[in-house]
Design a protein that fits this description.
By secondary structure, the chain is an alpha+beta fold. The chain folds into three domains: 57 residues; 104 residues; 115 residues, Glucose Permease (Domain IIA), CATH 2.70.70.10. It is 41% helix and 26% strand. The protein contains five helices and 15 strands. Strands 3, 6, 8, 9, 10, 12, 14 and 15 form an eight-stranded antiparallel sheet that branches. It has a three-stranded antiparallel sheet with strand order 7-13-11, with no helix packed on it. The chain has a two-stranded antiparallel sheet with strand order 1-2. Strand 4 and strand 5 form a beta hairpin. Helix 1 runs parallel beside helix 4.
Length: 301
């Protein structure tokens, strides 16, 4: 049957012509096999394409989930960084309070947390890490370390509160608030003199503002001087006890008198530009046992 000869005759309508084609049986089998192979191949490729589209959809969904998780991790990392900064700020506040009440800091500063050294900036250590698993592990370690630091800080705060209760009089007499409003135009320490252009030591901080801006006592004390004092112009000096005095220079006028007892927040004068001055500002000094110290070490607000 495969090798029998078959003739196919094709007639054309209304022309009286025909065409004859001759082929054998195995030709039909071969053509049928090719057609079946093409159909099977197309079916296989259609199935492969459908599987591919399914996998592609799953991959896109997985990538979206991973991206959302990464965003959540980075958001959590930013929150942890904020908490870490808050903890550092609390430590600075703690240090200032300890200075004000003369509480020994050596033991506190040398304490090493149980989990290792004190925490560093989280963004510098962990945010550049892009592997999700590694980032999550680092974040867990950071949270554990942060928890240890918080517990240690609670112990320090309890010690500090106990010391504050025992030294309330000292705290009330320590200059711990800003004496006026304005902006710092010159800080404590060496600077270039606005008069000579040479390097000189600035004994306090300059707070610039408008003429007449109120100036307040930063703590309880006794006024020991009011008047004109050379380059300081009109100034007020207050003794707060424990060897601490504060000076307010270049005043437009003062509103207290020598010997007067003032409390924290009480008006002592108005900002001006008297004496050796280039414009309206307050020159604010803090002296401890006669030595000028940086007023910023005492300011808490």
């Amino acid at each position: 049957m495969l090798f029998r000869k078959y003739d196919v005759v094709v007639f054309k309508d209304n022309e009286g012509a025909c065409r004859k084609t001759c082929f054998r049986g195995w030709h039909v089998v071969a053509i049928a096999a090719v057609i079946l192979g093409l159909v099977a191949g197309n079916a296989h490729f259609v199935r492969y394409y459908l599987d591919y589209m399914n996998v592609q959809g799953q991959l896109q969904a997985a990538q979206k989930t991973v991206e959302e998780q990464n965003n959540q991790l980075l958001s959590l990392a930013n929150k942890l960084r904020t908490v870490d900064k808050d903890l550092v700020r609390i430590r600075d506040f703690d240090s200032k309070l300890r200075v004000m009440i003369n509480l020994d800091q050596d033991q506190v500063d040398t304490v090493t947390p149980v989990g290792g050294p004190e925490t560093k900036d989280f963004s510098d250590s962990y945010l550049p890490i892009y592997r999700q698993e590694l980032l999550a592990r680092k974040m867990h370690n950071f949270v554990n370390q942060l928890s240890t630091d918080v517990r240690l800080e609670e112990v320090r705060q309890q010690e500090l509160m106990r010391a504050i209760r025992e030294n309330q009089d000292i705290l009330a007499s320590t200059p711990s608030i800003w004496p006026t409003e304005g902006w710092i135009s010159s800080r404590f320490g060496y600077r270039m003199s606005p008069f000579t252009g040479r390097r000189e030591f600035h004994k306090g901080i300059d707070i610039s503002g408008r003429t007449g801006t109120p100036i307040y006592a930063p703590a309880k004390g006794v006024v020991t001087f009011t008047g004109v004092d050379g380059g300081y112009g009109k100034c007020v000096v207050i003794s707060h006890g424990s060897g601490i005095i504060t000076r307010y220079a270049h005043l437009h006028k003062y509103t207290v008198k020598k010997g007067q007892i003032v409390s924290r927040g009480e008006l002592v004068g108005r900002m001006g530009s008297t004496g050796r001055s280039t414009g309206p500002h307050l020159h604010y000094e803090v002296r401890l046992n006669g030595v000028c110290v940086n007023p910023m070490r005492y300011i808490l607000n």
